[in-house]
Description:
Distance between the termini: 60 Å
Number of helices: 6
Oligomer: single chain
Number of domains: 1
Helix content: 40-55%
Strand content: 5-15%
Amino acid sequence: MDNVLEIEQLGRMFSKPKISAYDFLKGFIAELAINNIVIIPRSQITSTLFDYSKNEKYKPLFEDIGFNQYGDTVTSYDIEDSIANLQVLGMIGKLNPSFERIVIYLDKDLSKNICDSFDEDTRQRIESLVRDFIKQLNRGQYERCSTKF
Length: 149
């Protein structure tokens, strides 16, 4: 019986995550675009997503994302790498050289296609996370995002 339990634990430990860090961030950005959010503060992405990663409802979205916390500062190589890849592909850009704000270049059709590529459970979790993110923006918990350039 113990061997079966050990095998199950090893299977979970070495199994492929349901969604990659890159695909999650691509879905997050696409869902923001669907909701008419096209400019987001760069400085808050990692810390905001770290906060959401602690929520049981969203944990499956963060299986492939590692976070490092140093006091009040949260970093993530996985998120930084995904942002860089999205920028190289032209899905996002920056307003100025300091890259303080991310501009989302996805139109609604492409954004919907991206979101439709996920299974229903993953898509619903991303939609819910973005709704919660927008609610917190509207309450002033995070720096305002913009719906236009």
